[in-house]
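Q: What residues go here?
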């Protein structure tokens, strides 16, 4: 019983400590590129054809789609925003492999 009361006390104490809401925007060698990746991106595009710079072809066995998610939009207007990236709107990116053609979509 004593261990439970100590655990509850520690939990309540940790909840009362304020969490920093301002994150450092200084780029270091360990966080390069994250500001661009996490920036608002509300645009939508469909089936943009991709081409290769190398003189190789896509394997014939590669068919279908690869879908990944990421952050989309955190700020809405002047004063509305989500403070956490986990609460913001998401964005889906899709690569579609169809024979020799590869397309890219995002929404």
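A:
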């Amino acid at each position: 019983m004593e261990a439970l009361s100590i655990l509850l006390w520690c939990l309540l104490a940790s909840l009362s400590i304020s969490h920093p809401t301002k994150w450092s925007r200084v780029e270091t060698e360990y966080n390069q590129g994250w500001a661009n990746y996490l920036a608002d991106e509300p645009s939508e595009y469909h089936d943009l054809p991709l081409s290769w710079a190398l003189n190789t072809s896509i394997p014939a066995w590669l068919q279908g789609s690869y879908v990944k998610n990421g952050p989309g939009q955190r700020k809405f207007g002047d004063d509305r925003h989500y403070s956490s990236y986990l609460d913001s709107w998401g964005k889906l990116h899709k690569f579609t492999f169809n024979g020799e053609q590869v397309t890219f979509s995002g929404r």
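A: Context that may help when evaluating the design: The two ends are 52 Å apart (CA to CA). DSSP finds two helices and six strands in the chain.
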